[in-house]
């Protein structure tokens, strides 16, 4: 092997079959140059295509910006809405509004209307004055404002007085809604130039941190100051919140109603104003803010009463009656294309599988009927058996109210009550101990602090001042106890735990254990709608609305047109309240996208505001402002677990952190801001309790209510311990035996057997147990929101 030569690979010997074919793959110099040139051309062509594409994108953006600018400031655009908001109570915005309107309407004498057109500035504007102290009116005005002008006074003695508590509170609410373009007007500046500049610098430095970075400060004392601002405002590109650009809306300038002869309790509501955002179809549903969802019977597109060119029709500007305005075109809905006003799904009680009852089931039904007759009831003197059948027992109401979370899901892992145990198995009267236990369970008042709104009794009952104070004290104590000992409940002494907690089950792992989202759903789930793929449906609905906008269909009122909307089947008392409220706050109408009138389960990311100190209990009645829409809801709160499909319910909305609020409400496509109001107990105006945004629409989101039963070690021997006070009879120990136990010091174990007759039990742990430790058992059941009794705030007012 030492004299052997290393193997040399001879080129092409193994690649070609013959000598003549070895040179076929060789390429000439001419061909090499041609190929190199072509590859170079490909590289240069790709770069040129990339540059051309970037150029086209820039041109498209410029064209879009130019189109938007023409649409917002052209002759066909609606008047720009300017909201004057006083930062303190000492600011007089009425004089500033009059100065702006007289500057824009130089040819108008006498009283100046709130909407004017200026041929000098080539601008139409509507000036709104926010009433200081009325948060709801200010918020409704901010929803439709194109420019929010905050007005400050330079005559305040202290710099902290430039914005008071109400102004700061409103500003935080405006931020949650999404601020449009903003400016700050400074009034009452000194006339001397040096003092004027110094005062302006002081005000600007004090308020800069409260507003966005692009917010500019303008003096607004003289006509020249307002003249400079108007020239800048005319050329300014206004920014609006994204959620406002998704739907058409209208701020009513005139509100009227026409009684319906066929139905005395209904009427037709007439709203007149400029359509904004997108074109409004006569076939789509509309939402009147605070009143509900309705259909349109007609849209009349009228001649603009305030044209930008005043020479066109000077007489139309002086007319205040909507009947005098000329109707250009009338749109009527197509019965085949009109969106139906479908709110709830109508369940069919006979849609499920029906089987003929067996003889055993019929015998059991007869036995239950006899037992029902044997029950002793306290009835008024002279009540017949027929009349007694219509009287609802207080015990039945309390039992249905105590466990009204809407879920009838039975417990697994051996924790299921059969019909014999949960019924009344004997006809021997009240001497049966099982009967007495069941009677006691009926009178039990939800000892684990069920989250039903206990303050419902405030509705419809005249409570004294002492009763109201006691109710507030109880809620505050429950809130403090929930923060100190979350989820811990006491096992009742008079009711077996296997019956009191019959709806609860144990979980091996909260994160990985399975829970069927379709299991034992409440009756309310038969009334709501769900999507197979919500994101895909939202994408399809928005694309359909955009296509309708681009086609320019005949059944649509274009954006910027002056129109009168006929809203049919409005309750008469609702229309009367809207006409009365129109004097102080704007009446807003917004068009709804497809499916947005149907009920479902909505989830919001919500946070309690710092200024609201009272506890917010789950299932309390709250007013939700979601974009332009308003409705009443009774939410439940839960955590947001990213790595699990199950979420733990919270009995209170705790301050300082975000939670998820789940409610029954009409479907709404995100993103949308949320402002939550809670009514005052004394009957005053509602106050802001929380803010947030819409997260998703998903009825299958699993929210589990957790309770913890606690016991204490009596005797400890290495890994074994005798635990007492978790249960009070051995039957309960055997019932909950499959559930795992744990301690607050980190030990885990299981129940081995009951000890004695008073509910003590022997447990085995994975480590030594300390005498001062606490033994816990976690139980879960699924919770659902509460169906609201009142749909909309105006209906409840």
Verbal overview:
The structure is a single chain. This protein is of the alpha+beta class and about 800 residues long. The strands form four sheets. It has an eight-stranded antiparallel beta sheet. Strand 10 (about 285-290) and strand 11 (about 290-295) form a beta hairpin. Helix 3 packs parallel to helix 4 and helix 10 crosses helix 12. It is globular and about 95 Å long. The N and C termini lie far apart (about 105 Å).
In short:
The protein contains 18 helices and 31 strands. The protein has 797 residues and is an alpha+beta fold. It has an eight-stranded antiparallel sheet. A six-stranded mixed sheet has the order 2-3-1-4-5-6, sandwiched between helices.
Q: Taking Cα atoms only, what radius of gyration do you get, to the nearest Å?
A: 36 Å
Backbone shape: globular
Strand order of the largest sheet: 11-10-17-7-8-16-12-13
Largest sheet: 8 strands, antiparallel
State the total count of DSSP E strands: 31
Give the helix tally: 18
What oligomeric state do the depicted chains represent?
Answer: single chain
Strand-pairing-aware structural class? alpha+beta
Mean pLDDT: 80
Helix content: 25-40%
Could you give the distance between the termini?
107 Å
- The amount of beta strand, in percent, is 15-25%
Given as residue ranges, the uncertain stretches (5+ residues, pLDDT < 50) are 312-323, 390-414, 416-461
